[in-house]
Amino acid sequence: MVVLQLRFLLVPFLTSIMGAAQYMMQDAALINYIDRRFLSLERLEKCNQDILDYVEEFRDFSKMVLSRLAQLNSYKAEVKSEVENLLTRIERAQRDIDYFGSVTHSNTCIEVHEDLVKQQLFEEAETKKKLKLMLNASCDHMLAGIKSLKIFKKTGDKHGSWMKDPGKKHAKIYLLSGSVNNVILEFANIMTFMESNHMLKAHKVTLPFPWQGTGHIIYQGFLFYHRYGSLNEIIKFNIQKRNIADQMLLPGAGRIPAYQLSPPTKIDLAVDEQGLWAIHAEPETEGNIVITKINHITMAVEHTWDTSCNSKDAEAAFMACNTLYVVYNFPSGGTSRIQCVYDVLDAVNTYEIPVLHFPKRQGSHSTIHYNPKEKQLFAWGDGSQIIYKVHTKQKV
């Protein structure tokens, strides 16, 4: 009887113990499952971090590749410019060798010397013919006087430039203030520019690289400017698309100021009836001004001329109808005057040209640009934006 009672007591007890053990096993399995899930989440987080690190490394790599490509384009332009400069110098050297050889040999070679001289004269004549074909020979007018001026506004720094685009039909005005800057102010027309609150109506165009000096020019929808921090790099910037269209290195330029009285400007770019020009000075020419014709489409040098105009006491210059006009002043400021003229086709007798004075104004100019479309000079003088009307006559 006692055994039977113990049996009835032990069965529920053992059943409860086995049930508790079963629950403990289920809890352990659940904990193990949760632990595995946490480990999976940690591995997933590490995987996400690895992906982020990879994306960041890829971005850095892309930036490096783009930087190398930009350097490659710069080197390409540099090599192209240097090769063209070398070919030009070789051609000059060959002509000089032929000439000096013709005058230093013995008298027994007189006939040979005469042939060399004739050959040299023939080559010079052929060169002039080619230049006349390249430059429109029908451009036959020259400055005879500066008739009047109008000060449109006084805004901006002491140094700067303002202009219209002579290659476009629109009436937009562009203001580039300062000798180092990277923001162009674009106005719908001259009336908008002259308003008292004109800055609120200006459209800002930001350049990828700042400019150096005040010798930039806008032509055919592009801004051509000397890049700040470079010796002689000229950038062609598409104003509408907001990107760099091309670039080049101007041989020999950038080592000394183009004009002694405007030291920030090492390269002065100009436009006339024939297109784009560059004006600068070189130590090898003892400070005399050098002018270069540039193809504005290909950014290639077409021809270079060493002029007799010195950069000493010069403050600005401009090109008009194949002719360089250099503006001089006093270091302390005074009446600006044009007293050196150089025509690339020798169509002007520069010794008979009188000194041309700028009227009704004392001071100095930071820049002067000729607008061939309107036959006017856009000047920047002591922070003022000025337009001069010019009088022309036939070249003699």
List the helices and strands and how they pair.
Layout (H helix, E strand, L loop, with lengths): L1 H103 L5 H25 L6 E14 L5 E4 L9 E5 L2 E8 L2 H5 L8 E10 L4 E3 L2 E5 L6 E6 L4 E7 L18 E5 L2 E7 L6 E8 L4 E11 L3 E7 L2 E6 L8 E7 L12 E2 L9 E5 L4 E6 L2 E11 L2
Antiparallel strand pairs: 1-20, 2-3, 3-4, 4-5, 6-7, 7-8, 8-9, 10-11, 11-12, 12-13, 14-15, 15-16, 16-17, 18-19, 19-20
InterPro entries: Olfac-like_dom (IPR003112), Olfactomedin-like_domain (IPR050605)
Organism: Amazona collaria (yellow-billed parrot)
Protein name: Olfactomedin-like domain-containing protein
Describe the structure.
The longest helix is centred in the first third of the chain and has 103 residues, at 2-104. The chain has helices at residues 2-104, 110-134, 190-194, and strands at residues 141-154, 160-163, 173-177, 180-187, 203-212, 217-219, 222-226, 233-238, 243-249, 268-272, 275-281, 288-295, 300-310, 314-320, 323-328, 337-343, 356-357, 367-371, 376-381, 384-394. By secondary structure, the chain is α+β, with helices and mostly antiparallel strands. The chain has three helices and 20 strands. The termini are far apart. Strands 1-20-19-18 form a four-stranded antiparallel β-sheet, with no helix packed on it. It has a four-stranded antiparallel β-sheet with strand order 2-3-4-5. Helix 1 crosses helix 2. The model is unreliable at 102-112 (pLDDT under 50).
